[in-house]
Amino acid sequence: MIPKEAYDVVQETVKRCPPQPGGFYQKRIDSTLRGNIGSEIEALLDILDEQTVAFVCAAYPDVHKLVIGDYLLVEGEV
Description:
alpha+beta, 2 helices
């Protein structure tokens, strides 16, 4: 899918499920960074309010990642 198509798909999806105040949204990304990640995140940020930020972290399930507060722990280490 080209970036514009990916952007449009996310925009339409979000419009069908309107954002909720204080809601949490996630875009899952695998370790190979496949897809149009930037376009998809941009589409979500464009439809949410100006205070919204994106935190991007690739998934490596075998290394047991955990986010606690402001820290990303990998195998229990910061």
